[in-house]
Amino acid sequence: MHEELTFPDRERLIRLLGPRDSFLRQLRAAFDVKVVARGQDVTLEGPPEQMAACLKVLQAMQEHLDNSGDLSEGVVAEIIEERKAPGREAEGARTHQDGFSPACSARPKTAGQARYVQTMLENDIVFCIGPAGTGKTYLAVAVALDYLKRGELKRIVLCRPAVETGEHLGFLPGDLRSKVNPYLRPLYDALHDLMPPRTVKKYVDNGLIEILPLAFMRGRTLNDAFIILDEAQNCSVDQMKTLLTRLGTTAKLVVTGDITQVDLPPEQQSGLVDVHSRLRGIKGVGFMRLGLEDIVRHELVREIVNAYQKGASSDTQEARQ
Q1: Overall pTM > 0.85
Q2: Distant-in-sequence, close-in-space partners of 211: CB < 8 Å, separation ≥ 6
Q3: Segment 266-286, tens digit of pLDDT
């Protein structure tokens, strides 16, 4: 099936397709439809069912643009989710993650995030690589809490390597929890966004949620657990192997990180970089990459990340010359 749409206003079409065609990329990712924009024309080609759904999304996007004067990747993701044709996702997929109160729930805001959630639901081990602000950790914690609430797994284990980012803090006072809490704070932040503070404390005190440094994982076997390793780019190859061999018979593991922000010594290889070549192709192991289009923090964060990535590419080219 082939269809061509013509827009009288080029400026309106640009707003409809998003900055740098970001909304257009969401459409391409969501439907088995070839969508091409040239000048003031948009051409669609694909199976009739998928075409019908894609056209409904475009119509809803235009209506939202007329009513509010603005579109965002989050809004487009919601429109796609509401009108997606059947058969695109696995039956029974649940991209919306229930929280522990009506105000505490999570929904993917971009097509990439929706694929990330789906990958976590379909695989027992998932590696997700992406820049800051793409929701790697937040969505992993949301899925883990959803499993816990549904009774599909009995506990959550959250861990991070205790590696400082470019500065050495020296001796930290207090007991063990006080010493490691600064490294684990981002995991607590995600929990507090998705659960009432009293519930977080209760679950941590009862051992239903365990937050610990990666170094404390050796020698353990984790059954009926949803395990999340955050900042995995700062794991050594041996540490990654240690974590991967902790899984019990009923467990899920999500590993997140940004391979552009490795804080290990230059001579030490990142376990997150190494693991792709070792485990690629194994059934039940999923790999996911999020990009600039999946950043959902302040709109300037995307521009900042992009600027640093360009700077790193320029430095690499100069070093080779």
Answers
A1: no
A2: 158, 159, 184, 187, 188, 204
A3: 889 999 999 998 998 899 999
